[in-house]
Amino acid sequence: MSRDPLSDLLRSVRVRGAVFYYVSGGQPWSVQAPPAGEIAEAVMPGCEHVMEYHMIVKGNGWAAIAGQSPVKLTAGDVVMFPQGDSHVISSAPDASPPRWTAEMVHDMRDVPKPMPVTLHKGTLVPGAPLSAENADAVIVCGFIGCDLRPFNPLIAALPRLLHLSAARAGDMVARVIEQAATESSHPRPGGDAVLEQLAEIMFVYTARRFLDDLPEGASGWLAGLRDRYVGKALILMHERPEQAWTVEELAQQVALSRSALYERFVQYLGMPPIQYLANWRIQLGARWLRESNRTVATIAQEVGYDSESAFSRAFRRLVGMPPAAWRREQNRR
Question: What's this model's pTM, rounded to 2 decimal places?
Answer without folding.
Answer: 0.85
